[in-house]
Design a protein that fits this description.
The chain has 77 residues and is α+β, with helices and mostly antiparallel strands. It has one domain (3-74). 27% of the residues lie in helices and 30% in strands. It has two helices and six strands; from the N terminus they run αβββββαβ. The protein has helices at residues 3-12, 58-68, and strands spanning 16-17, 21-23, 28-30, 33-39, 42-46, 72-74. It has a six-stranded mixed beta sheet, with helices on one face. It is globular.
Length: 77
Amino acid sequence: MKNSDVARAWWSGRSGSSKHLKTDGHSLWSYNLLIATVKNGNRVVFDYTSRGGHFYSVTTSKHVGLAARHGNLVAPE
């Protein structure tokens, strides 16, 4: 799967994976870092970007950007 397909799978509640992005349909991981999940029925994406102040890596930032198209961007917990 492409990374964008994995992000769409997460949004649709389906599992999927690419080389460094995976989902079980509920949670989404970039490498082994949880970057998105479902809370109270809402899809939330943790802002692990430099703009969000919680930069992790360039690749993870790209993964967050893909997921943010499908969920609400929030600060990591």
